[in-house]
Amino acid sequence: MNRVVQIAMAEAGETADSIARQVGVDPKTVARWVSQDRIPQIRHRAQIAEILKRDVLDLWPDAHRRKEPSWFKPWTELERDAIGLRWFESAVLPGLLQTEEYARAVLGGGPLGAAVENHIASRLQRQKAVFDRPKRPLSVFVIDEAALRRGAAEIMKPQLDHLITMAEQPNIMVHVLPLAAGLHPGQAGPFVIATPPEGGDVGYVDDQAAGRITKDVTPLWAVWDIVRSVALPRDQTIEFLRARSWLT
Fold first, then answer.
1. For residue 85, is it left (φ>0), alpha (ψ between -120 and 50) or beta?
2. 227 and 127, same structural domain?
3. Crossing angle for the helix pair 27-35 and 16-23, nearest 10 degrees?
4. Domain count, the chain
5. Cys-Cys link to 175, which of 123, 211, 230, 231 (CB 3.0-4.6 A)?
6. Is 5 within 8 Å of 15 (Cβ atoms)?
7. How far is CA 212 from CA 84, 126, 191, 216, 244, in A?
8. CATH number of the domain that 47 lies in?
9. CA 52, 55, 61, 66 torsion: positive or negative?
10. What pLDDT, in 10s, does the model give residues 43-61?
């Protein structure tokens, strides 16, 4: 039983029924969150914390513990401190630009099983660590158009709205690489180039099994120069995203 949530509900004069009405779920679901110590989805945790006037971490301290594999942690530290990020994606949208529901759809289709929610929480924390700091890094994203066409419309519509919002913010540049550009070297796979404050670029290359960090970034820069040069400019990318003519 989650005694902290139970006590907070009593102090706020809330019941499973009243919280269910405000959050938009079945009262039995709220009861399970309390009696069985189930952890709600991220958006529900935030809503309940606001209703109970408590911090999310006070109510569910275990929900936000990062469950990252050991090989990935060094990269998150580099990403968090970087003054520059260059990110190319060919099949899905960059993790730093994903909405919660899009991330759930992407991660839910993999082998993570019950750990999906932990990985989603970790991904959203990474976004905050990069974009909510006083001085954001210069972040440039090149996304193959194919990634924009993959996903159910009910997930992709809000995801594209979020992508436009991010693309219009200072120090964030999003460029779509149109299908009309044809074959390009970026199809070999996604990668990121991070520039630490002390200099000396570091790359991250992803594959089916696991990602790897490399300091041999010369080949990555060569691919980056090509994909960036054939991608749409920032303003045209935003217009392209707003048109979303491929969605029905």
1. beta
2. yes
3. 120
4. 2
5. 231
6. no
7. 19, 18, 10, 11, 34
8. 1.10.260.40
9. positive
10. 788 889 899 998 877 887 7
The CA-CA-CA angle for residues 88, 117, 158, to 5°, reads 55
Residue 248 lies in a domain: no
Cα dihedral angle (144, 150, 154, 157), rounded to 10 degrees?
Answer: 10
Q: Which residue has the tokens 């994903």?
A: 98
Confirm whether 206 is domain-assigned.
yes
Token pair recorded at residue 110: 């993999």
Residues 105 and 210 in one domain: yes
What residue ranges in 61-182 does DSSP mark as E strands? 84-89, 138-144, 172-177
Domain limits for position 211: 73-243
Say if 231 falls within a structural domain.
Answer: yes
Q: Taking Cα atoms as reference points, which of 178, 194, 193 lies closest to residue 227?
A: 178
155 and 197 part of one domain: yes
